[in-house]
Amino acid sequence: MLTITLANGKTYPVLQNTAVYPSGSSAVRSYMEIYMEETAMTSTAFEKLFTVSENTAEIHIVNEESGSDIGYFNYAILANVGKKRISRTDSTTGETAETMALYVRLEQLTYIEQKLAKLGISV
Questions:
Q1: Among residues 39, 42, 44, which one has the least CA distance to residue 13?
Q2: How far is CA 122 from CA 9, 15, 55, 69, 92, in A?
Q3: Which of 15, 11, 79, 22 is nearest to 47 (CA)?
Q4: How far is it, in rounded angstroms, from Cα 69 to Cα 86?
Q5: Model pLDDT for residues 16-41, shown as the tens digit of each residue
Q6: What is the band of 2 on the pLDDT scale with cuts at 50, 70, 90?
C-alpha cells in the first residue's frame, strides 16, 4: 500500500498509479501524478488540499510494505486536478476494470524558479 504525507503532516492512502516523472533538466519542470480512490474525499476537499502550496512544499511517498520513504520538494504548481478514469488489471485473472479516481498533477519549481521564490519574486 502506498501513502503520501504532505508538509502539513497529514497522511493519505494513494493508488499504485501514483508516480513521479523527473525531467532530467534543471530548466524543465519535473512532475508528480497522485491518484486517490474516488471515495477518499470530496472533489472540493481534494482540490483544496493541493491548492495550498504549503501542503505540497514537501511530499513523502511511503511504501508501507517495504518501508521506503522518499521525499519530494517544491512541487508547488498545481497543473491539473479533478477525476480521471483509470484501468486496473488483475494479475491473477487478467481481467481489466475501469474506475474513476481523484487525480492531481503537481509540477516542481525549476532551479531558477526556486531561487527567484527565495528572493521574493513570484513565479
A1: 39
A2: 26, 33, 18, 31, 50
A3: 79
A4: 25
A5: 999 999 999 988 999 999 999 999 99
A6: very high
